[in-house]
Amino acid sequence: MRLWHESLIKKLPRQQLLGQHRECCALRGKGWGKPHSTVNYVFNYSPYKLFQYHL
User: Fold this and answer.
1) What average pLDDT is seen over the chain?
2) Is residue 2 situated within a structural domain?
3) How many domains does the chain have?
4) Does residue 1 lie in a domain region?
5) What does the alpha-carbon distance between residue 45 and residue 41 come to, in Å, rounded to a whole number?
6) Residue 5 has what pLDDT?
7) Residue 10: how many CB atoms within 10 A of its CB?
8) With contact defined as beta carbons under 8 Å apart, do 1 and 26 qualify?
């Protein structure tokens, strides 16, 4: 799992952008209960922040 910096999102090719969307959706469900060291930090913040990032 990886979350791209928000300033890079508009430069991502279509496949990476779709992957980013899937990552956000998976994280919204707490990663389906599977911890991942790369993105676990998002759970330290309000779920609203992930929503804002996804927009």
Assistant:
1) 77
2) no
3) 1
4) no
5) 8
6) 82
7) 7
8) yes
Q: What is the pLDDT of residue 4?
A: 79
Q: Tally Cβ neighbours within 10 Å of residue 21.
A: 11
53 vs 10, 44, 45, CA distance in Å?
Answer: 13, 15, 12
Residue 6's pLDDT band, with cuts at 50, 70 and 90, is: confident
Per the CB < 8 A criterion, the answer to whether 3 and 23 are in contact is: yes
Q: How far apart are CA 18 and CA 34, in angstroms?
A: 21
* Cα dihedral: 21, 36, 51, 24 (round 10): 10
- pLDDT at 26 (0 to 100): 75
